[in-house]
């Protein structure tokens, strides 16, 4: 039975994400409490939760800690416990050592370990059970991201009455790469438990539909996938079929080019590009103290003519090394001079339990040390490297202080930093250099789009950005701003949930 709320019925709208919507904080007086997470997803969904009996199911961030559900503001929070072993095998292992690199074009080598997948399945089942407990009859459940791809089908199995959406925040790989995954059928079946599967880019949605068509043999018509409700084929049957290793080994499927006879569930797979809380960022950019702070930042950097900025989680997908290499070469050949220019790189600590992240950190620290040692002067730094996370107020001040924003990701589901930079620019100045391998590049067409693997192109774009005339820069920025003002994260959430509400579910084709 669903857990009771005030109505005694469970919750009508449930979000399921690896991380809970609140962080545990220690106050100055030593007391502890919970604070709403600052991220865009929480900002977008919190108002919906507050107006619709909402609950959020997720891990609260500490190992081996079992907490009872609790309320925070108008949100009901359902903590899912993870043991140290779960964190090692499900979070650092299968999620961030297998899926993350595989889904990001194998920039780092994915590791395939059976015990990691076992943990992934076990933890996904736990998330599904916690959700099934709190969802009201016929509730809408929205599952988030690659850590929970098995949850939709597990949940449908437990609670066929629910309407289930899934959103993948990271890329979905091309079928040739996805095919490497030993548990590819389980993942596809898991996702197909949803009624609507959202992706960042049209190409991600199409990669997914092609994988389903090729591997499962299901009929796909535009964005709709026909998932047969009864079939004799043990490998490729309903997504409700069990998750087992044998099913994953099946490969030879008959691909349907017309809807097969029988009853099928319709599942839509389509792009819904995520965005940011634009209004909050533009409001911060108008605050006197934040404007003053942005001026102070430029002074602290020795008042260079041009401030270049990079802001990323310290992740190998972000192309931080490529960016630094281009910058270093521009200093070496004299195209840029210290004093005239300064680079600020904020790299927030991330996933330090995963080896590839530890190695990247060492490499970046070495590169920064080399650039500083060679080019810093007593009065002017060539580069400021900040291995910290900052509150949004400080980030907005940094965006305002930066003349050029460098987003050079090798692969990125969306890249919200690019959108935040645009939202934070008050006048129509500032230039965004943006990798074409980000989801944001589909919408921010007036940025200077680059291939970060091409170091000469990247150097040319940095120089072009530092010397761009203000008319060109402001025409571009005005266009970019229009994009992020009209397409903010609330619109993303509403578009997705409206579509989920419209979907009809089943189709019957006569033989
Ligand atoms: C990406 C993922 C999110 C994840 C975030 C931070 O944006 O799409 O699901 O929460 O990175 O990573 P972490 O591993 O710290 O949750």
Automatic annotation (TrEMBL):
<protein>
    <submittedName>
        <fullName>Trehalose 6-phosphate synthase</fullName>
        <ecNumber>2.4.1.15</ecNumber>
    </submittedName>
</protein>
<dbReference type="InterPro" id="IPR001830">
    <property type="entry name" value="Glyco_trans_20"/>
</dbReference>
<dbReference type="Pfam" id="PF00982">
    <property type="entry name" value="Glyco_transf_20"/>
</dbReference>
<comment type="similarity">
    <text>Belongs to the glycosyltransferase 20 family.</text>
</comment>
<keyword id="KW-0808">Transferase</keyword>
<keyword id="KW-0328">Glycosyltransferase</keyword>
<dbReference type="GO" id="GO:0005992">
    <property type="term" value="P:trehalose biosynthetic process"/>
</dbReference>
<dbReference type="GO" id="GO:0003825">
    <property type="term" value="F:alpha,alpha-trehalose-phosphate synthase (UDP-forming) activity"/>
</dbReference>
């Amino acid at each position: 039975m669903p857990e009771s709320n005030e109505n005694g019925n469970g919750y009508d709208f449930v979000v399921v994400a690896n991380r809970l919507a609140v962080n545990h904080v220690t106050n100055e007086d030593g007391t502890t409490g919970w604070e709403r997470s600052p991220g865009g997803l929480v900002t977008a969904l919190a108002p919906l939760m507050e107006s619709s009996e909402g609950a959020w199911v997720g891990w609260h961030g500490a190992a081996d800690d079992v907490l009872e559900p609790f309320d925070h503001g108008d949100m009901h929070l359902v903590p899912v416990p993870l043991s140290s072993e779960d964190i090692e095998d499900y979070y650092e292992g299968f999620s961030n050592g297998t899926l993350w690199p595989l889904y990001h074009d194998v920039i780092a080598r994915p590791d395939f370990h059976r015990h990691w997948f076992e943990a992934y399945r076990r933890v996904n089942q736990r998330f599904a059970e916690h959700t099934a407990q709190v969802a009201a009859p016929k509730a809408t459940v929205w599952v988030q991201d690659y850590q929970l791809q098995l949850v939709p089908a597990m949940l449908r199995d437990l609670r066929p009455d629910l309407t289930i959406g899934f959103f993948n925040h990271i890329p979905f790989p091309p079928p040739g790469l996805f095919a490497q995954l030993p548990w590819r059928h389980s993942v596809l079946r898991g996702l197909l438990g949803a009624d609507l599967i959202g992706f960042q880019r049209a190409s991600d949605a199409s990669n997914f539909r092609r994988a389903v068509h090729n591997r499962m043999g299901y009929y796909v018509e535009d964005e709709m996938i026909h998932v047969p409700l009864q079939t004799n084929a043990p490998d490729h049957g309903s997504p409700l079929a069990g998750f087992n290793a044998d099913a994953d080994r099946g490969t030879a499927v008959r691909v349907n080019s017309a809807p097969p006879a029988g009853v099928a569930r319709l599942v839509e797979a389509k792009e819904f590009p995520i965005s940011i809380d634009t209004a909050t960022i533009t409001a911060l950019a108008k605050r006197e103290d934040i404007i003053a702070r942005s001026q102070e930042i430029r002074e602290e950097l020795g008042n260079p003519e041009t401030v270049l900025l990079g802001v990323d989680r310290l992740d190998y997908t972000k192309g931080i090394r490529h960016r630094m290499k281009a910058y270093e070469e521009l200093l070496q050949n004299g195209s840029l001079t210290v004093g005239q220019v300064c680079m600020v790189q904020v790299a927030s600590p991330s996933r330090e339990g995963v080896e590839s992240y530890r190695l990247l950190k060492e490499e970046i620290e070495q590169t920064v040390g080399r650039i500083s040692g060679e080019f810093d002067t007593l009065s002017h730094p060539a580069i400021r490297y900040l291995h910290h996370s900052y509150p949004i107020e400080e980030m907005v001040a940094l965006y305002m202080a930066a003349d050029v924003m460098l987003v050079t990701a090798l692969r990125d589901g969306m890249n919200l930093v690019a959108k935040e930079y645009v939202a934070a620019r008050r006048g129509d100045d500032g230039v965004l250099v943006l990798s074409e391998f980000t989801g944001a590049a589909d919408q921010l067409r007036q940025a200077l789009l680059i291939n970060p693997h091409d170091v000469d192109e990247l150097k040319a774009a940095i120089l072009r950005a530092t010397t761009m005339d203000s008319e060109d820069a402001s025409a571009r920025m005005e266009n970019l701003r229009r994009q992020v003002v009209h397409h903010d994260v609330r619109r993303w959430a509403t578009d997705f949930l409206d579509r989920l509400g419209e979907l009809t579910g089943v189709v019957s084709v006569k033989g």
